[in-house]
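User: Show me a protein chain along with its predicted structure.
Assistant: Here is one chain, sequence first, then structure tokens.
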Amino acid sequence: MTTPDVTARSTGSVVPAPPMPGTDSPGVPRTPSVPGLTPPAPPSAMRPPDTAAALPRQPVAFTAESVRHDFPILHRTVNGHPLVWLDNAATTQKPRQVIEALAAYYGAANSNIHRGAHTMAREATEAYEAGRAAVADFLGASSPDSIVFVRGTTEAVNLVAQSWGRANLGPGDDILVPVLEHHSDIVPWQMIARETRARVVPVPLTPDGEIDQHAYADLLSSRTQLVAISHASNVLGTVPPVKEMTALAHRYGARVLVDGAQAVAHFPVDVQDLDADFYAFSGHKLFAPTGIGALYVRPDLVSGLAPWQGGGNMIESVDFGHTTFAPAPHRMEAGTGHISGVIGLLAALNWLTALDREAVASYEEDLMAYALQALATVPGLDLIGSAPDRIAVLTFTLAGQDPTTVADWLDHDGIAVRAGHHCAQPSLAHYGLTSAARASLALYNTSDEVDQLVASLRRLQQTT
């Protein structure tokens, strides 16, 4: 039996944070100005596409301490200790700019989109489509029409499987899926493979947790129709050579879907440089709200995608004899979308891209190196995966301790990590494991927090 995923228990009190810019009182975001209120100028996340989608050109100097002031939740306590949030691979925390954008939308701009002629409908539609343009810019896509809004990476993969897969897969076709993948990039392919009589072919890993490139090359053939690759592993942190793997797959005429859920918060992504056919990510791992994500579809593919859900918003005309669908990407977005989620995602992208992302990536690399050295001093701790190119995901076991016990112990010290199979059972099985603990770092984490993690783990080992 595998151990279910659990998050360390989070009970405690919220303590006032220091006053932050744009707040009326410590830790309480001020409701920003929105259309219809005084002053009338909307906040950046609610401006029309010509301003909101124009991401900042000059990056703001970055330090972890400076960005921590933007995150109210990082100033709370858990079990009497300051919160140390090391569960970023599961979800990132939200800056006040995102929280304020959501409050602004619901406080003074809430409306459905696309189908209204009134002022607030136009404002909401402009903000929603500004979000689409911002995502396209963020991913280096050539047009906003290549961006489909979804609930997250899982829905994006299912959309591709059910829309593209149903139309293009058949008996004898291969879908190559590395052992590295998250369950959301395995199960949808198994489901569509059963329906189309294709087969899912696992690509093995090397001992250090990299995708075995020799095996990958050997498995590619004229039967290969799709390769599904994570841009970064949520368990091992491995960053595969996606560009090179994509180029090789294209030689065989295969399409490539890239799961970018763990990548986009850590380093810039250019889908045109990668030459990806599909690229998916989730907003909640990118400092944005839950329930919103995006799927990039290569321009020469997007117009050919058949709708996978029917309803409102995705049609041009309907009668009982015939229905015509809206052009892409709207035909893939049935029903009312997660409008506030897009507003929050836009705010998150504006916040993140204002930072010097090269400095952010360099900082995270240094912090991970520090964490690797520090964790090596904990008796009985065994880190899983040692790929040279990786993000700051630190999955480990502790001799004599169940991973859930480790997470619970750390929680008593205010440290949030995750324990379980991390929705990546094949990756853990590669190391003979069914469960492990995971600490995952983000741009607001510090070496002091790493020291607290190490000290708590050492105390746990000393008590047994």
